[in-house]
Specification:
Strand order of the largest sheet: 4-5-3-6
Helix content: 55-70%
Strand content: 5-15%
Largest sheet: 4 strands, antiparallel
Radius of gyration: 33 Å
Number of strands: 12
Number of domains: 3
Structural class: alpha+beta
Distance between the termini: 56 Å
Shape: flat
Number of helices: 27
Length: 767
């Protein structure tokens, strides 16, 4: 992600904890997943070099132990591959797109073509070694035209090795089957990696951007500051951290309304962005607190920046309430050399700084709708409630999420799978027409099976992950190639190219690692069975052994990438649907659940309750006890609300200190004393005599409304009319005592049952 202030600030990465195996293989995949992170992983680079070493040792062993092939050519090939392996293991992975990257890619397919020539006339034994060309091309090169150029060169090199190297008919047929598959595999890898990178960019944008103002969030500023401090330590240049907060922003919210107050915050962010020097990074760290990291700026430059910022902020329209700020500055290296030290000093100076009261901004501007800049007037970006990503962000999240469950049922992917079977059936038909030796009942039966399989896939609907039909499809990707090789025995290497998609498709259609391993193990057993039963010649034996190694490596690499992408997608869902402070849902999650539940409850004639809840006295507590105590209260309230209802209720923090609960299969009479107990428990969240009392409004389906908007409106109206002090809260905990308030509420007995089981149980109880 980049934090842009007129120009692009340093690139940062969000590093989070993920799958242990994934971190061991490629630690960069634990955060944002991108081609660059994968390529620059030293583990992946070492694994590539190790593959060259394995092939070099294999060639040397075959040259020494077998007399079927030309020993001199094999030893030269072994020496060349070994040298490449040593060089790769000794060097660091090159930057993507560099000349070294293109040289490494060319080495992969030229080495494969050289192996075909070295093993002539039985070059079909090593054709499958070029299986890695497509995946490596899609990883190391982003431009599709450049990928096409390399694929063309790889195809030409393979054909030249077959023709000029004196390959037999089996080698020719294996190459003809292999080249189209290489193009298809490369295209599929490009599509998947493009989708993964798009998801990664959206994930990083959501993870590092404040949803209200569009500038950075605390995670982003921490990453940028860490990178900048490392750079400034080596260059011995100054750096300034400027933190400020709006003084008495609660008065502005009261005077002009919360929506217009959000507009003021967005305007402050726009002013801060335009005022910060080129290359700076800015963020909203919480509420009305902002921070700016100014590279190459000393104390005097920071004060100049602050003065200009104050002048521009004074032009923001805040009604009759003047906009004032408290600011603090910490500089590197004068005040400290560590991120935590600088942030702490800046925060302490903000707390000690006096507010500089300014006159209110111009009254002619539309309140909360314009950001007034020196010399210009421009609309501010449309804002959303705190914690809610913009509609564009939600659409991007839905469009870019990569998930194997979605891939398995995607109609385009399903048709491509059918066309893959059809492609090999057509190639087999051409081979049968050209080569009379292939016109056996077994080969003709395989050809007919290929056509039939592709036709069935095109007609049928794609099965979901976890179904028996899906396992049948996954098994077909390796059972049919085994049948093809058995049909061509003893010259099984002719059909080895039909198995190049086996590992990829098994991983793409299955999620559980044990199931993936079971399919690959079954395929491996089938290949070894062909060898051990004596149905293969020497070239076919070598081809099968190479195929086993390649399939396992491809499968493992695909598992790592898919799991990284899916883990990233789950984190995106949390960012889009969850409130980061309390862990509860946000407004989008509640509305989505409400839209899903209303038709179901309407069809089943079941009740449903929506609860709107707002904390009275919260602003006073935040003012006197601080934001930290206020945030702790919000988290406690979210926990209490979750404890008061069953596992399938939806709890969302809408904004600030306002929450909503959606209770499926529940009517007002079913709540019994839960609402009263909830009032008592929330009152127990009070701090030091600052009493917190909830305003609660209920709307029931279908009595109060049958649409989403009607229920939300009625619940909100009843909540605003509720007087929390009018309730007799006997047993309210003393705010100055620490009581186990969570013990006041008991979870519903239906916890653990599925939603469908709850529906059935409720219908039986209602009769």
């Amino acid at each position: 992600m980049t934090v842009q202030i007129r120009t692009v600030a340093p690139q940062v990465r969000l590093v989070t904890a993920d799958l242990q195996a994934m971190r061991r293989f490629a630690p960069a995949l634990s955060g944002r997943v991108s081609r660059r992170d994968i390529v620059l992983s030293p583990h992946l680079w070492s694994a590539t070099g190790a593959m060259f070493a394995v092939y070099a040792v294999s060639c040397a062993v075959i040259a020494i132990g077998f007399g079927t092939f030309d020993d001199t050519r094999l030893l030269v090939l072994a020496g060349t591959l070994g040298t490449i392996a040593v060089v790769m293991l000794a060097l660091r992975p090159p930057e993507p797109g560099s000349l070294a990257t293109h040289a490494a890619i060319a080495t992969t397919y030229l080495g494969s073509a050289g192996a075909v020539a070295a093993y002539a006339p039985h070059g079909s034994a090593t054709v499958i070694a070029g299986l890695f060309t497509g995946p490596l091309l899609s990883l190391w090169i982003r431009d599709r035209r450049t990928i096409a150029v390399h694929l063309s060169l790889a195809s030409a090199a393979l054909l030249a090795a077959v023709v000029l190297g004196g390959g037999d008919q089996g080698t020719v047929f294996a190459a003809v089957c292999f080249i189209p598959g290489t193009w298809v595999l490369a295209g599929c890898c490009v599509i998947v990696l493009d989708a993964v990178e798009a998801q990664g960019a959206e994930y990083e944008r959501l993870a590092m951007r404040d949803p209200l103002t569009g500038i950075g969030n605390p995670t982003a500023i921490a990453e940028v500051l860490g990178v900048e401090l490392t750079r400034h330590r080596s260059s011995n240049q100054p750096l300034a951290v400027v933190e400020f907060q709006l003084d008495d922003f609660a008065r502005i919210n009261t005077a002009i309304g919360r929506s217009a107050g959000d507009g003021v915050l967005a305007s402050v962010a726009a002013v801060l962005t335009d005022t910060a020097p080129s290359g700076s990074a800015v963020a909203r760290i919480e509420g009305d607190r902002f921070v700016a990291v100014l590279p190459g700026t000393g104390p005097q430059g920071a004060e100049t920046f602050l003065e200009e910022l104050r002048q521009r902020l004074a032009l923001i329209d805040t009604g009759d309430v003047p906009l004032a700020i408290r600011a603090g500055v910490a500089t590197f290296p004068a005040d400290g050399t560590r991120e935590r030290t600088l942030r702490g000093i800046a925060r302490d100076r903000v707390a000690k700084a006096p507010a500089e009261h300014r006159e209110p901004g111009p009254h002619g501007a539309e309140r909360g709708g314009l950001a007034i800049q020196i010399g210009e007037v421009r609309p501010i970006p449309r804002v959303t409630p705190a914690g809610m990503p913009s509609p564009e962000a939600r659409e991007n999240w839905a469009a870019t999420r990569v998930d194997r469950r979605g891939i398995a049922t995607d109609p385009v992917v399903w048709r491509v799978t059918a066309l893959t079977f059809l492609m090999y059936a057509v190639l087999a038909t051409v081979g049968v027409a050209i080569q009379p030796d292939l016109r056996t009942p077994w080969v003709l039966g395989f050809v007919a099976t290929g056509y039939l399989t592709s036709a069935v896939i095109l007609v049928a609907r794609p099965p979901a992950v976890g179904t028996i039909a899906n396992h049948v499809v996954a098994a077909a990707t390796w059972v049919l190639p085994l049948a093809a090789m058995a049909a061509c025995a003893p010259h099984a290497s002719w059909a080895v190219g039909t198995a190049m998609f086996s590992g990829v498709l098994v991983v793409a259609r299955l999620v559980d690692r044990r199931q993936i391993a079971a399919h690959v193990v079954a395929f491996t057993i089938g290949l070894y069975a062909l060898i051990l039963t004596g149905h293969t010649d020497i070239a076919s034996t070598l081809a099968c052994l190479t195929l086993v190694l390649s399939t396992w490596v491809i499968a493992i690499c695909n598992v790592i990438v898919f799991e990284a992408a899916e883990s990233q997608g789950h984190r995106m869902a949390e960012l889009v649907l969850r409130d980061p402070l309390t862990g509860a849902g946000n407004e989008r999650l509640l509305r989505e659940r409400l839209i899903d539940e209303l038709p179901r409850h309407r069809d089943m004639q079941m009740p449903l309750v929506l609860i709107d809840l707002q904390l009275s006295g919260f602003d006073a507590l935040r003012t006197h006890e601080g934001r930290g105590a206020a945030d702790e209260v919000l988290r406690d309230v979210a926990v209490l609300m979750g404890h008061a209802v069953d596992d399938h209720a939806t709890i969302s923090r809408i904004h600030g200190h306002r929450f909503r609960m959606l209770l499926p299969l529940t009517g007002p009479d079913d709540l019994d004393g839960a609402v009263r107990d909830l009032r008592i428990a929330i009152a127990g969240c009070s701090r030091r005599g600052r009493l917190i009392l909830p305003r609660i409004g209920l709307a029931a389906f279908p009595e109060d409304g049958v649409t989403e908007e009607a229920l939300i409106a009625i619940a909100g109206t009843r909540m605003s009319m509720d007087d929390p002090r009018g309730h007799d809260l006997i047993g309210t905990p003393d705010p100055d005592e620490s009581l186990p308030i969570r013990q006041l509420l008991q979870p519903r007995p239906s916890a653990g049952a599925s939603r469908d089981e709850q529906y059935a149980e409720r219908r039986r109880s209602i009769g």
